[in-house]
Amino acid sequence: MDFSLFFPPDYSCHDSTFVKLKPTDLKDPEYFHKVVDCQYACPAHTPVPEYIRMIALERYDDAYMINWESNVFPGVLGRTCDRPCEPACRRGRIEEKPVAICRLKRVAADLKGDITSRIPRGPFPSNGKKIALIGGGPASLTVARDLAPLGYEIHLFDEQKSGGGFMRSQIPAFRLPEEVLNEEVNYILDMGVHKHFNTYVSSLKEILKQDYDAVFIGTGAPRGKDLPKLDGRWDAKDHVHIGIDWLASVAFEHREKIGKKVIVVGGGNTAMDCCRTARRLGGTDVKVVVRSPFEDMKASAWEIEDAQREDIPILSCHNPKAFVTENGVLKGMMFSRVEAVYDDQGKRKLVPLDEPDVFIEADDVLMAIGQDNAFPWIEKDLGIAFGEWDMPVVNKTTFQSTLPKVFFGGDAAFGPENVITAVAHGHQAAVSIELFCQQMDVHDRPNPLTNLFSQKMGIHEWSYDNAIVDDHRYNVPHANKELSLQNRKLEVELGFDMPTGFKEAQRCLNCDVQTVFQESRCIECDACVDICPTSCITFTTNGDEEDLRHRLTMPALNTTQDLYVSDVLPTMRVMVKDEDVCLHCGLCAERCPTSAWDMQKFLYNVSKASHVCPSAVV
Amino acid sequence: MSYKRPSFRHPGAAINEIGFHQKDYEGALSTLCAGCGHDSISAAIIQACFELAIPPHRIAKISGIGCSSKTPTYFLANSHGFNSVHGRMPSVATGAVMANRDLTYIGVSGDGDSASIGMGQFAHVVRRNLNMVYIVMNNGCYGLTKGQDSATADVGSVGKAGVPTMFSSIDLAGLALELGADFVARSFSGDKDQLIPLIKAGISHNGFALIDVLSPCVTFNNTKTSTKSYSYVRDHMGSTSIADFVPEKSEITATVAPGESKMIEMHDGSIIELTSLAEGWDPGNRLSAINAIHNANLKGEVLTGLLYIDAKQPSVHQLLNTTLKPLNSLNQDELMPGVELLERINAEFR
Ligand SMILES: Cc1cc2nc3c(=O)[nH]c(=O)nc-3n(C[C@H](O)[C@H](O)[C@H](O)COP(=O)(O)OP(=O)(O)OC[C@H]3O[C@@H](n4cnc5c(N)ncnc54)[C@H](O)[C@@H]3O)c2cc1C
Ligand SMILES: Cc1ncc(C[n+]2csc(CCOP(=O)(O)OP(=O)(O)O)c2C)c(N)n1
Ligand code: SF4
Ligand code: SF4
Ligand code: SF4
Ligand SMILES: [Mg+2]
Question: Is B22-241+277-320 CATH 3.40.50.970?
């Protein structure tokens, strides 16, 4: 017998003709940044898990300051953020619901102590530069916050009587109490910003004539859409209102009442704010009427729920046809019924149904069908190019317009978004303004500040709480419905109390504590593979990505999540980790005999204006 | 240190034919040293039982004493278990098998537990062909008592204590073949592709199935000079063939040319498909298996894979004509067949 045949060179199934994945480059900060799903999805890249841990440690001040650094309005956003982080949250991929990231931000804001000593306070040594900010919304306020401490003389213009923009004029007080908004707006205004309120800027040319080194335009999208050509639109115009104008008049207390029967036309968040405000101003029979099917409504699911909880029916697939008036008095509206038909590409068409029109009675109608930008005050000969839909041509990274000293941000830059997007724009515009004023290239952006450090404290001990709790998402309590419908300023959501905040915080998986693999230490014992609860780790021969994704212990089908691939190991295999459902539980590292796996905390801070010339920071 | 495994599993985790998740076959979080080969064998047992879709409560796991014998705590938490006395797993297993032939019996032992104190016990379950899979987690040392050389440590092998082994080693697979075992296999904790089909085949085998699994002790016997270390086994491992286990009922879609492959039908209708057979080795020929082991051992090689199988031999139940029903379900009529029958039996001796 020839026994050498018993010993084929094992593991040689490694085929060198294969296209192989290159080992993951951990020096690229974007790799681990992407693993922190919530932070990656947040437009301002708030270090979410870091502040959630602070909440669990009852360090609310620290939790607040981490937020304040990134998103400027933690108290406001903890109540009103559009929360793009939550659909991205990893927890939502391993159980039903994501971590209540947004409501935890509110916990930090509600339970913090006096943090005024940690907020930069002027007077700051001047850097000799002077800038104008047009519009006092979150975008402009963020620019002010980032640049005031660098010594800029800042002039803020707004046509309203106080700062905050749409956060003040549009978001109703029952969602965002005035004190919360005032506190966070004032942290910024108190840095020595020159306030020009009740001042409508009617000519940019006039502003440019003055000695500003740069101008930031954060005027939002202030024009509510109308249905000017609809039958009867102008026959009883005192009872037909543009939603956002009406909300502003309520916020500024110019208006305290509405008729009993109210129709709100539209299906977005503005419609939800309009109908709920109408309920509080005397509307007893308030209906939302929307063209699209219910499932396609633009409003966030939670805003719809809140409206429904206040007994507001939502009628879908009703297309506005006419305003019905009698002797100059509004009687209601006529709607035609439509049906949504989707083509092969999933594109929707609303097709009229062969059904009688529907008449709905109303004393008042609120139109919440969208907003447009409007720049009547920007002269066309200033060198600022306008493109499609009369929107200014703005660089998506630098926020610079075609006139180098003029920058745009927030809803004014690319159309209506939300507060957190306005903040993110503000940070980047501030970086550009600083670069521009220091005569540096605005395209040469400073790198994000990153840090990666081991959490190992002992042989099997970590400096983060790695146990995974099973708790489902906690609901926030609500104020008594009868009481809140009588008082438009009574906040509906009450926020988590301390114990619930702690329990919700414990649901976070600490996705910023990364599993870092060092192939030179690995003895290929399989311990990590065996212990991993969610089957993330596979040792196998290399291949191209598509092939590898299907060869793992559990196929890696979520292609938005990367594969972590090591260099070749002694058996000619590679370690492949699918990041998709890693719980960051640390068990792989605990069970590894050689510490080939380590749990390392990855901090990622978006570059801010203060990073352009670090020495300028006071 | 974590004392609990998170309860979440991969959202795409499959369920088996009888509606269980692999999680339902798991046990407590291991307290063995990180990187211990025994943990990988536990994981292989979990996966094999899940894939075979055995109801967990129809399995009994029986062990002796040692790190290896502790592992039943770390798998099959929903099964019956008996962690017995050092070297006495075979006796307890014998009792259990006699009492109830309907369960699947998994015996877990160590090289110390089987090749030293339990040597005599081991020999007798083999020759009686007791219905069980007997898994030896073989690390060449007494792990639990801090790594003394065991009887399977090779001459000259040097573990963490630093003293070369003086006495010649016992090859449990070779010994089982000599004692008449009908299912003998050897594997490596670090090669689940090989180990899992072997465990499945062993469970399906009617009678005694030995799987001697090399299972490095990371703490006391994973030195560069040990022949039971991860690197030594990997560098010196060869295999008789590639075994694939095809459960009963599934269609066989073998594409291997005849001569290169062999199908072995098991008692329960399942099939072991062997491919890339090593030249000169015949899975049904006891002598070729004994030869192969000896030759490999002489060269310091570790021969793994299915070494020998005869699926046709009667097990202890057929040999003893034991009752089909579990003893605890026998009623008075069956236990006391009555005076008439006694008379008849007595009459036969008159
Ligand atoms: C009803 C409603 C509810 C909303 N709810 C939410 C929510 O819950 N969460 C969320 O994230 N987002 C919400 N949004 C969107 C959010 O308010 C905006 O996206 C955000 O405020 C945009 O910020 P900004 O800084 O770009 O400008 P804005 O906040 O719009 O501020 C612009 C300011 O500029 C002033 N201005 C405009 N032109 C001039 C001029 N020529 N001279 C002087 N001043 C001028 C305006 O009066 C205004 O105060 C809501 C919007 C609406 C309409
Ligand atoms: C009767 C008896 N004698 C001695 C011991 C001490 N003892 C405990 S475990 C063990 C050896 C275990 O070795 P092995 O079976 O190889 O298991 P491992 O820990 O290596 O997995 C010994 C000698 C004992 N528990 N009982
Ligand atoms: S579990 Fe925590 S860290 Fe992970 S994505 Fe969700 S909130 Fe972020
Ligand atoms: S931390 Fe390690 S063991 Fe835990 S889920 Fe992630 S890869 Fe698996
Ligand atoms: S546990 Fe550590 S040594 Fe073992 S295979 Fe995993 S990384 Fe490698
Ligand atoms: Mg041992």
Answer: yes
